[in-house]
Amino acid sequence: MYEYAVAWEWLNFAFRWLHVITGIAWIGSSFYFVALDLGLRQRPGLPAGAYGEEWQVHGGGFYHIQKYLVAPAQMPEHLTWFKWESYATWLSGFAMLCIVYYAGADLYLIDPQVLDVSRPVAIAISLASIFGGWIVYDTICKSPLGREDTRLMVLLYFVLVFMAWGYTHLFTGRAAFLHLGAFTATIMSANVFMIIIPNQKKVVADLIAGKTPDPALGKQAKQRSTHNNYLTLPVLFLMLSNHYPLAFGTKYNWIIASLVFLMGVTIRHWFNTRHARKGEPTWTWLATAILFIVIMWLSTVPKVLSGEGGQEKLSTVQQPFVTAEAFSQVRDTVLGRCAMCHAKEPGWEGIIAPPKGVVLESDGQIAAHAREIYLQAGRSHAMPPANVSGITDEERRLLVSWYETAVKGGTVQ
Length: 413
What we know:
single chain
């Protein structure tokens, strides 16, 4: 059964790779069409119903593109739909959420010092917040509050701030950031699935039936597309943050997440303004830099933890690893070869926070990260990096034997 850990790791890698590929496709097409839309030019002699056109050059050829605000007088024979990039990105991301955070809920999702709940309850909270978020967002957009774009976006920003604060009071810091990203990405993908594509299909159906399409359908789709445009960069930051504990593992992590959304607005504003040929608002780069410096400063504030000290309580998953015969030798190996970096206060020069937030200073912490130790320091030589602590082949074999023995004799995989 210990080979399950290897297979599961490769499954994680496969879906992560797929998620990156589909994400590139979705974000790339989204950014391209936003830039195209903003760069459209009007001229005399455009076909009836055409709003503007754009000439582009790429790959040794020229492209002549025209946009119709509602639809052309006749449906073209060939029509390309941009939707599967969004759907595949969300589906692969949700698969990763299940693989990493639901299957590993005891380690990555639940923090007893934040909210001590069972795995099913934590997963239920996760699912409810993600799918419930879309319902709240969609309701606000369709309400009278959604009729004015600027007011709507300010209101939605405060919803995101509330969610950032709320998630840090439900899950681990790492899971809080990931869930805020999933919450936002679900809104973005649901915009495509529930609003943008259905509205476009209604327009196509009206054209085929000889009816005049409702312009409100295009206006609504445009509003949701604009939201997606400004939310993309913060989602990327939140998805990458699990590699950087200075972002998610600090006292004011929810404020950091909130400021990231503002950086997404300032960066995209510069690109949008430039693509619309309305100048280059360089002040946005200064604003972004200031926000990032504030984020860096916030990450240096010591995090106050509660519930520390006393007898360490081991879960049923951790117990087989701690009670394994070779655990005392494993503990000595981990403390001697790994804990100089993976400590609350790392002793290795240049490292100011434990990599990925992983601390290996107690029996429970070592047992909780047994699979990672097995894969990265036992089955592979990924850790320590460049073997800076001089771990021997015999010690690596010890880690492998310890994990596999505990798995065979316990209830873990």
